[in-house]
Write a structure and sequence with these properties.
By secondary structure, the protein is an alpha/beta fold. The protein has three domains: 125 residues, Rossmann fold, CATH 3.40.50.300; 60 residues; 120 residues, Zinc Finger, Delta Prime, domain 3, CATH 1.20.272. Helices cover 57% and strands 9% of the residues. The protein has 16 helices and five strands. The longest helix is centred in the last third of the chain and has 25 residues. The two termini are 41 Å apart.
């Protein structure tokens, strides 16, 4: 199912007690995981990424609560948990309606989950990135909750600075609470540093054009970004270029609305179209492989993350 269907179940109080959340939007996965497990006096056990232990998870859902509270199990992972484990936890929830189980999967290879649990009572939900109006509405709602005065134009500007990342924009709203006044675009320009499209374009172009990017990377890191987010941003950008490449090869000319889902300035479209055609499909495959392996190394080891980014740059010089 999709987000709209889940929203109806929440509104009608007809939720299941087991959930598999996946898709393109980590933001929505986080939000709805919190929503369906926000239960007073619940006994919650959460596992993040490599912390998962089947026996501990099994014991938590299998045990009865001494005080009649509900047992909640949350698995958050970018690596796939064995399906037999997921099926087992869902079955425990089917046997005991007081149990709640959420499997929040953040990996990109999630499409097989759409029908994997069709015969189960679980609600498997695919979340897409919020559309522009949704993102603006979310940030506006957060601003109201935090009692931050900010108009819609400034919200759009804030989202543009963070390249449409709703989570980052909402984090900025939290910071704005200390100002105690209406937030303007000038405030945003002065106080916010994000992976804005123009800055990100320049940074990635240096990598793709095999130029030195250390100064740019240091500047990004000094302003609070981490290497994993940088790698993720590069992956997203490369994917976008690949989409341009495929579309142009098939249709003959780029169409931002069909490729990106939203209109973009003509000069941006022209730049991305030209850059996308510099690489053949097999090069895009190699770039993605390098990026994903680099991201995995960062998340699974205590290593020098900036060194991994630099090594990625060196390896791309061979393409």
């Amino acid at each position: 199912m999709y987000k709209s269907e889940l929203d109806k179940h929440i509104q009608n109080k007809s939720l299941s007690n087991s959930f598999v959340f996946f898709g393109e939007s980590s933001f929505f996965i986080d939000v709805y995981t919190k929503t369906v497990t926000d239960i007073e006096d619940a006994s919650i056990l959460s596992f993040y990424h490599d912390e998962y232990d089947f026996n501990s998870a099994k014991a938590h859902l299998s045990q009865g609560s001494l005080f009649g509270d509900r047992n909640v199990l949350i698995l958050k992972s970018e690596k796939k948990v064995p399906k037999k484990d997921i099926d087992f936890f869902i079955e425990l929830c089917e046997k005991n309606p007081d149990n709640i189980f959420v499997y929040a999967y953040y990996g990109a290879d999630h499409k097989d989950y759409a029908k994997a649990f069709a015969k189960k009572s679980t609600m498997d939900v695919r979340f897409f990135h919020p559309k522009d109006f949704e993102a603006q509405s979310i940030v506006s709602q957060i601003a109201k909750e935090k009692q931050v005065s900010i108009d819609n134009y400034s919200i759009i500007h804030l989202l543009q600075i963070h390249n449409g990342d709703v989570a980052l924009a909402c984090n900025e709203i939290e910071k704005f609470t200390i100002l105690g006044r209406a937030i303007t675009t000038k405030d945003i320009d002065n106080l916010v540093f994000g992976l804005a499209e123009i800055n990100l374009d320049d940074f990635i172009k240096k990598i793709l054009n095999k130029k030195d990017f250390k100064e740019d990377l240091n500047n990004i890191l000094e302003h609070g970004e981490d290497e994993i987010r940088v790698i993720t941003a590069i992956t997203s950008y490369i994917t976008q270029l690949y989409m341009f490449n495929i579309y142009i090869r098939v249709k003959g000319a780029p169409n931002a609305l069909e490729i990106l889902g939203y209109p973009a300035p003509p000069q941006i479209v022209e730049q991305k179209a030209a850059l996308s055609l510099k690489f053949k499909p097999n090069i895009y495959a190699k770039l993605h492989e390098l990026l994903l392996s680099s991201e995995l190394k960062m998340k699974s080891s205590n290593v020098d993350k900036s060194a991994i980014v630099e090594r990625y740059h060196k390896e791309t010089k061979d393409f």
